[in-house]
């Protein structure tokens, strides 16, 4: 089986690791009550806060601006406020209970959906526990409200996203040929970080 974390690092190039460290992760994991996958933490520590290939944003738990913890709390509150008892008039693909086999929909909790990244196209990506609670799966919702399950690691999901596969449902590819663009997010109103590119990919 491919080492998708190594493949992602090879595609993105050396990360600066500006805010890497275990303390902020430990605090966030204690707040939510679960550990984030190690590959997700490694990618976030290496590059975040960053926007990748114009669309996908990664935030970091150690920063006040572009805070992953704050984003999880705010995004979870927004999704939890929706009327999840309306499944009788939802299409099956719009009913997260049906797609993920859930009895109850929760957000931002250890036994619920934890938002981990999003795009400027209105797409959200969540961690959700596997049915046997042996680990996590990836689930994504596109802008029209359709949900999709991906039983794979975050690094595999990200690798497939970057090589142009449909990773937020059919026809969702956001492929750009050439090196991957990484745009560090500004840490103050006056900050103007320079964009960076990963190595040539032969694509």
Commentary on this structure:
The structure is a single chain. By secondary structure, this protein is α+β, with helices and mostly antiparallel strands. It has one domain (4-197): SMI1/KNR4-like. The protein is built from 6 helices and 8 strands, in the order αααββααββββαββ. It has an 8-stranded antiparallel β-sheet with strand order 6-5-4-3-2-1-7-8. A hairpin with a 6-residue loop joins strand 4 and strand 5. It is globular, with a radius of gyration of 17 Å. It holds the Pfam family SMI1_KNR4. Keywords: Plasmid.
Percentage of β-strand residues: 15-25%
In the residues, how many domains can be counted? Answer: 1
Could you spell the SSE succession in H and E letters? HHHEEHHEEEEHEE
Structural class: alpha+beta
Question: What best-fitting shape do the alpha-carbon axes yield?
Answer: globular
What value does the average pLDDT take? 91
> What name does CATH use for the topology?
SMI1/KNR4-like
Spans of at least 5 consecutive residues with low confidence: none
| CATH class categorisation | Alpha Beta
DSSP summary, beta strand count: 8
Task: Compute the separation of the termini in Å.
Answer: 22 Å
Radius of gyration: 17 Å
Largest sheet: 8 strands, antiparallel
CATH architecture: 3-Layer(aba) Sandwich
Defining key terms:
alpha+beta; SMI1/KNR4-like
Task: Please summarize what this structure is.
Keywords: Plasmid. This protein has 203 residues and is α+β, with helices and mostly antiparallel strands.
């Amino acid at each position: 089986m491919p080492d998708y974390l190594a493949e992602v690092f090879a595609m993105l190039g050396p990360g600066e690791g500006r805010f890497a460290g275990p303390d902020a992760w430990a605090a966030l994991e204690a707040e939510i009550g679960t550990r984030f996958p190690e590959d997700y933490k490694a990618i976030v520590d290496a590059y975040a806060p960053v926007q990748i290939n114009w669309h996908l944003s990664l935030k970091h738990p150690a920063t006040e601006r572009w805070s992953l913890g704050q984003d999880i709390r705010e995004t979870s509150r927004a999704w939890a406020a929706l009327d999840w008892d309306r499944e009788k008039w939802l299409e099956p693909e719009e009913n997260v209970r049906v797609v993920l086999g859930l009895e109850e929909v929760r957000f931002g909790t250890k036994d619920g959906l934890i938002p981990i990244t999003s795009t400027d196209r209105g797409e959200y990506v969540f961690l959700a526990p596997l049915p046997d609670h042996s680990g996590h799966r990836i689930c994504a919702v596109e802008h029209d409200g359709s949900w999709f399950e991906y039983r794979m690691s975050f690094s595999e999901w990200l690798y497939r996203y970057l090589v142009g596969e449909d990773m937020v449902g059919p026809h969702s590819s956001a492929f750009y040929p050439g090196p991957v663009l990484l745009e560090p997010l500004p840490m103050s109103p006056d900050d103007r970080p320079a964009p960076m590119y990963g190595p040539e990919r032969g694509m």
